[in-house]
Amino acid sequence: MNYLIKFLKIFLVLIIVSAICILLFFVHRDVSLDDLKLKYTNKHSSFVSIKGIDVHFRDEGSKTDTIPIILIHGTGSSLHTFDFWTNKLKYSKRVIRFDLPAYGLTGPFVDRDYSISNYTSFLKEFLETLDIKQCIIAGNSLGGEIAWNFALEQPQMVKKLILIDAGGFPLVSKSVPIAFRLAQTPVINKLFSFITPLFVVRSSVEDVYFNKLKVTDSLVERYFELGLREGNRKAFIDRLSIVKRYNYVNISKIKQPTLILWGAGDLLIPLENAYKFQRSIPNNVLVIMDDTGHVPMEESPLESIGFVTDFLNIPK
Fold first, then answer.
1. Whole-angstrom Cα distance, residue 157 to residue 127?
2. Which residues of the chain have pLDDT under 50?
3. Which residues contact 171 (CB under 8 A, 6 or more apart)?
4. CB 93 within 8 A of CB 62
5. Strands 135-140, 69-72: parallel, antiparallel or unpaired by DSSP?
6. Are 64 and 191 contained in the same domain?
7. Residue 75 lies in a domain
8. What does the pLDDT look like over 201-233, one tens digit per residue?
9. What distance in Å separates the CA atoms of residue 195 and residue 221, rounded to the nearest whole number?
10. What range defines the domain where residue 18 resides?
């Protein structure tokens, strides 16, 4: 009996010590928007009120361009994922990008509705606020799903479409980032709102890259810190908890010229989904990038932007 009591005491102490370690190393407070603005805005950054939230966006390049290109990032990311593309395109195009609600500096939807229909409604209001009548839309992952659904809903507003490892078809992932899995696991996802280990963020970013050596400390820091913006962790969970409703049966109605750009090493939305888009959209060009994962514009920026400029007939 004495041995049992002694064992239980030691076990209890270990639990307490483990809990203290978790609190010390893995619990992170939300970071204030003002602090994040100091680091993640620049002279091109602006904020506009859409659906009751202040949306962070950047509007760069030729102001005389009447058909700007709109760049939409994916889940857990931000407008910064298109830094390289913007720096190349802005010399010949007007380039607009923004942090989607739930991510970056924009923060969560007030009504917590993260359906694709609410995102496309948001996009329409955003474009109308900026007085954009027609545009080219490029979207990665979630951003791609928003882009092609918007093209279906508002065909007169979309001149061309660029889908980058886009969501929207049923899929069987070969690997899912650990942050996604934690956010979708009952009970654990409640803890994920305030326990956010840096190694989980690093692992999740590496999971969507083909070449893990390209995942730098500064890149991980950006994903980590913007994820700590007030409300973003809860919104991340809300977004991944919604019941998926597919609209791909209508995708053949997309008539706009479409570039389908895909990383051959994408484990989250595998290459077979690229062929589903190719078979479904009548007027398309499919480009498959070797040695590249889920975020070509970030992992292989120079190579990927070349395909975009060719598609848009922009001189190099």
1. 9
2. 7-27
3. 269, 270, 273
4. yes
5. parallel
6. yes
7. yes
8. 899 999 999 999 999 999 999 999 999 999 888
9. 16
10. 1-30
Return the structure tokens found at 8.
């239980």
Determine how many CB atoms are found less than 10 A away from the CB of residue 270.
Answer: 20
Strand partners, 135: 158
Q: Are residues 74 and 11 in the same domain?
A: no
What SS3 state is found at 157? helix
Output the DSSP codes for 141-159: THHHHHHHHHHHH-GGGEE
pTM metric for this prediction: 0.90
Provide the CATH number for the domain around residue 176: 3.40.50.1820
**What would the two tokens of residue 159 be?**
């001149």
Q: pLDDT for 56-100, tens place per residue?
A: 999 999 988 999 999 999 999 999 999 999 999 999 999 999 999
- Specify if 316 maps to a domain: no
Give CA–CA dist 207/289, Å, rounded.
17
My answer on whether 86 and 60 are in the same domain is yes
